[in-house]
Specification:
Helix content is 25%, strand content 25%. Strand 24 (475-478), helix 13 (488-500) and strand 25 form a beta-alpha-beta unit. With 784 residues, the chain is an alpha+beta fold. The chain has three domains: 25-122 and 195-248 and 252-283, Aldehyde Oxidoreductase, domain 3 (Alpha-Beta Complex); 287-458 and 618-770, Aldehyde oxidase/xanthine dehydrogenase, molybdopterin binding domain (Aldehyde Oxidoreductase, domain 4), CATH 3.30.365.10; 461-601, Aldehyde oxidase/xanthine dehydrogenase, molybdopterin binding domain (Aldehyde Oxidoreductase, domain 4, 2-Layer Sandwich), CATH 3.30.365.10. The protein is globular, with a radius of gyration of 27 Å. Helix 14 (528-555) crosses helix 15 (579-587) and helix 16 packs across helix 17 (738-750).
């Protein structure tokens, strides 16, 4: 049997999703199910003085109506300060205040129209820099009293919920040794995950008080723990079941609709309650953090980086959610994938009266990558250097030390950079891409830009898996990895098929169910292929050992001499027994027994930590079990009359370690490139006094398929010695270089440097009009 590892096999969930047969949470209907709706605050910051539910509660068909005072519990991952419903104080416009469960969604909505709430408005703060100043309105007056994880240390009496510092060498000494010092400020906006499936869940509390939640949570075991901590009950009294998930990108971790559904389910005597957010409610639930990045960089005349000082201010919104861990990961990467002897990063996570910000594809990396890759081109331009050569001179390689103090291994960045440089700049300059012919009328100019990046993974973390062989020789992978569209279930199937020699068509992969599937930290941070892939590999090898031990006496051979392939056990003399024959002979023809292999993986002997000691490796560490690497290039056209930017093509080279499923890796990169185009050109939350003005897909512009340019994707395989078959993660890394590559290409095209995303036409045109010539002489990277 040919190994399927390295083969571009079809996604095991592809046909069901493509034909519309996949059932999502909002499609589920359980017997006796009620429908929930929620009423959001009409103020960004206010005391709740009175709530009148009398009229709403009398409406026919209403089964429960509650406020935060009826269910006064707090939850959260980093700081336990998020109420199931607002308790006494609202901290952003639209925060859930009242929830109702009714026989129909229409009755629930009508009931909320009858609710009367009296507020006392409080001063609000919407800008994180203003929020850091002494005397700013406090989003959380009791900040010092909340329970926190060890990695988070809030500053009571302020809006700072997290501050940390990383340093390498002596940054002031480095500046003293530099020939030039550059200092620049960059900003990135809050943006929406924009998953097609909205937040949704169903909760039921049975007569014994046991809670069951059906939903889309990307980390069901962590979600179960969060619920248990909030309610002060055993995790054994909570069950979370996931099914198909219609997109995630980091937005479906933690408790979103689950908290409201659980609160209502406690009031309705065993009936299930389904809570589905509207699109506007989704927009107000969780976002990518806005970030202000200040970079101070010292260089020598030849472009060698000597020192870099980074100051980060993350707008976390009204509640911490995952914001502090986003700042930890983003901060640990903020100096960039460059050899810099002296570096320092200071990172602040700040509360404001806006919706929560947290994890979104890249986990803090897109914000900082836009800054450091833009500044790399700015430095190259000032020094008269080629941007590509500037990167060649400084990028990390095998054994390089970064600002966390960790040394890097299995580094494929140089190969990624060279591939993009060759493809983007290697062709004749006079041949424009095909997309050039489709541009509307205007004075269009072309430019090219490049960017690179690297990404860490959540460390330390744990994944466990079972692999079972059933009586007919088919196999099942039992895992809590959630298939959110990234293709992980297909990857895990391929790993099991390779070890067991079972045809891929005869292997199933389970949905997550905390009563059945073993522990997994989370389906986040591009950790699943590396961590769960290793767990499945170990579990399959355990099942393999058991099968060979069973077959050995039946075949008069040593287990070490036997092998599994094509659904059978084979001996050196060419004899074979099918897996079904081995099981039935061992357990009896009608026994129906199965072999169950178990695997648990947590990275312990992490490369690059030899000089740091194990004491440094704790929960939410800035150190990493592996790093992913990528380079991307963009070719753009800019209309000098309007400032419009069109991306003509994108080139991406990604070090994936080992492409277990090459086409799946390519698809992950392509999807991320599309998101990167939106992040770079169009997407941002628009605010007016704390009110979100574009909370829908009509006014919040995400790229469609027609907006995505031709994409060329190349996979680099610098195998990681501890990854399954050498594999690393790819899904999150892929979004980080896109926006800075586009921004660098825009500068090359017309001399306009945008330092605050997105690059909307008005910004570009404003700078074009301010320029004396309207266009600066271009430099062509790689051609100097």
């Amino acid at each position: 049997m040919r190994s399927v590892v390295g083969e571009s096999v079809a996604r095991i969930d592809g046909a069901v999703k493509a034909t519309g047969q996949a059932v999502y949470t909002a499609d589920l209907s359980l017997p006796g199910m009620l429908h929930a709706k929620v009423l959001g605050s009409s103020h960004a910051h206010a005391r709740i003085r009175a709530v009148n539910l009398e009229k709403a509660g009398k409406l026919a068909g209403v089964r429960a109506i509650i406020t935060g005072r009826d269910f006064p519990f707090l939850h959260g991952e980093c700081i336990i300060n998020i109420p199931f419903l607002a308790i006494d104080t609202v901290r952003y416009l639209g925060e859930p205040v009242v929830a109702v469960a009714a026989d129909t969604p229409e009755i629930a909505a009508a009931a909320l129209d009858l609710v009367e709430i009296a507020y006392e408005e409080l001063p609000a703060v919407f800008d994180p820099e203003e929020a850091m100043k002494p005397g700013a309105p406090l989003v959380h007056e009791d900040l010092g009293r909340y329970q926190t994880i060890s990695a988070v240390d809030p500053v009571p009496g302020t809006n700072i919920c997290q501050r940390f510092v990383l340093s390498l060498g002596d940054v002031q000494k480095g500046f003293g040794e530099s020939d030039y010092i550059f200092e620049d400020r960059f900003t990135t906006p809050q943006v929406q995950h924009a998953a097609i499936e909205p937040h949704a869940s169903i909760a039921q509390v049975d007569a014994a008080g046991r809670i069951t939640v059906w939903g889309q949570n990307d980390s069901p075991h962590r979600g179960r723990k969060e619920i248990a901590q909030a309610l002060g009950i055993s995790q054994a009294r909570i069950r979370i079941i996931t099914g198909y998930v219609g997109g995630n990108f980091g937005g479906k971790g933690g408790l979103k609709t689950e908290a409201i559904a659980i609160a209502l389910a406690h009031k309705v005597k065993g009936r299930p309650v389904r809570m589905v957010f509207s699109r506007e409610e989704v927009f107000r639930t969780i976002t990518r953090s806005a970030c202000i990045v200040t970079l101070k960089t010292g260089v020598r005349r030849d472009g060698t980086l000597v020192a870099r000082q980074v100051r980060l201010i993350w707008d976390v919104g009204a509640y911490a959610e995952k914001g502090p861990t986003v700042s930890l990961h983003g901060g640990s990467l903020a100096a960039g994938p460059y050899v810099i002897p002296h570096a320092e990063v200071e990172s602040f996570t700040v509360f404001t009266n806006k919706p929560m910000s947290g994890a979104m594809r890249g986990y803090g990396l897109p914000q900082v990558a836009f800054a450091y890759e833009s500044q790399m081109d700015m430095i190259a331009g000032k020094l008269g250097l080629d941007p590509l050569e500037m990167r060649r001179k400084n990028i990390v390689g095998e054994g390089s030390t970064v600002v966390t103090g960790q040394r890097l291994y299995a580094v494929g960045l140089k190969e990624c950079l060279e591939k993009v440089g060759e493809v983007l700049y290697g062709g004749p300059e006079e041949e424009p891409p095909a997309a050039w012919q489709k541009l509307p009328r205007g004075r269009w100019v072309r430019g090219k830009g490049i960017a690179c990046s690297y990404k860490s993974v959540k460390t330390p973390s744990v994944s466990a898996a079972y692999v079972k062989i059933d009586e007919d020789g088919s196999a099942g992978v039992v895992t809590s990895t959630v298939e959110v569209g990234q293709g992980s279930h297909t990857i895990l199937m391929q790993i099991a098929a390779d070890v067991l020699g079972v045809e891929k068509e005869n292997i199933t992969v389970s949905f997550a169910d905390t009563d059945v599937t073993p522990y997994d930290t989370s389906t986040t941070s591009s950790r699943s292929t590396y961590h769960m892939g290793n767990a499945v590999l170990l579990a399959a090898q355990d099942a393999q050992r058991q099968l060979l031990a069973m077959a050995a006496p039946l075949m008069n051979a040593s287990p070490d001499a036997l092998e599994l392939r094509a659904g059978a056990v084979w001996s050196p003399d060419g004899k074979s027994l099918t897996l079904a024959q081995v099981l039935r002979t061992t357990f009896g023809a009608g026994a129906g027994a199965a072999v169950i292999g178990q695997g648990v993986f947590t990275p312990r002997d992490i490369l690059g930590l030899e000089d740091l000691g194990d004491a440094k490796l704790e929960a939410f560490s800035t150190l990493s079990a592996f790093h992913s690497y990528a380079a991307q290039g963009a070719e753009v056209a800019v209309d000098l009359d309007t400032g419009m930017v069109r991306v003509l093509r994108l080139v991406a080279a990604h070090d994936v370690g080992k492409a277990i499923n090459p086409v799946n890796c390519e698809q992950q990169v392509q999807g991320a490139l599309g998101m990167g185009v939106g992040y770079g050109l169009t997407e941002e939350y628009l605010w007016q006094d704390g009110k979100l003005l574009n909370a829908d897909f009509l006014n919040y512009t995400i790229p469609t398929a027609r907006d995505c340019p031709p994409m060329e994707v190349f996979l680099v395989e610098e195998a990681h010695p501890q990854g399954p078959y050498g594999a690393k993660g790819v899904g999150e890394m892929a979004i980080a270089p896109t926006a800075p590559a586009i921004a660098n290409a825009v500068y090359h095209a017309c001399g306009v440097r945008i330092q605050d995303l997105p690059l909307k036409p008005a910004k570009v045109l404003k700078q074009l009009l301010a320029s004396a010539s309207g266009r600066l002489p271009p430099r062509v990277p790689g051609k100097q």
